Amino acid sequence: MDNHPLNGAVECGCGHLFCADCMAGYLSNAISEGNVEGIKCPDQSCQTVAPEALVRYMVSDAVYARYDYLLLVAAVRDMLDVYYCPNQGCMSLAVVDINSATCPKCGFRFCTNCNKPYHNNTDCDLTEQEQHNAIISHNDRIIVGRIANEDNLNHRAIEAIEAEDRQWLETIRREQEEIRRAEQLYEEQRRADEERRAEEERRVREQREREEREQREREIVAQQEAERQRLERERQEERRKQELKSDAMVNKTTQPCPGCKRPIE
């Protein structure tokens, strides 16, 4: 319900404008609550999803790091062939191979059903000794060939993940470049707005100074006119007194004409 300038408003690409502080608070709150998959426009009637570039620009680095991490977790959760390594202190992504996975970081190989060390397709409910005995009993060429095939599949899967990682990093790089360009455009627009506001303030200040100067000149002219009128009144008064004095002198020193009765010498 506050007034804000339009040049400080942001939107999700749908035309619904919000001030930057409100949008930043809205996005940060959604990320802190873990709602990162498709953060929608704050307008409840709008279904437009906030672009990642806007999220990156509006929130802090720490909040964006959480946003990026939660997006990755959500993506991994939906992938049937990727698991997090259960090895403590690692938690890297591991590629699934049938019912086992090998962590590309620490090399730990585990069962995707029970998250325990890989037990060569034996029952997860068996004890370690029973699993060991089952593995020994099936240690023949078929098992050896299968293991070799699994290793080959693991290797190809790891290569595919690495290729996806490179593609993902390239996508991130392009998005970061877009963000930098957007920030540069925003900074240029901000500087242009500041220069325009400074120019407007300068014109207003000059106009005000000109009006004040004209007002002072009018006051000086008015004072001069008042002084001129005062001096004119004094001169007229002095002239009237001199005329009265002259008339009195004439009346005193002359005799009136017998005909017109006017004073004559």
From TrEMBL:
Residues 1-265 form the RING-type domain. Gene3D superfamilies: Zinc/RING finger domain, C3HC4 (zinc finger). GO terms for cellular component: cytoplasm; organelle membrane. Residues 187-246 have a biased composition (Basic and acidic residues). The keyword Glycoprotein does not apply. PROSITE patterns: TRIAD (PS51873), ZF_RING_1 (PS00518). This is RBR-type E3 ubiquitin transferase. It is found in: Membrane. Its EC number is 2.3.2.31. Coiled coil: none annotated. It is a single-pass membrane protein. It comes from Oppiella nova.
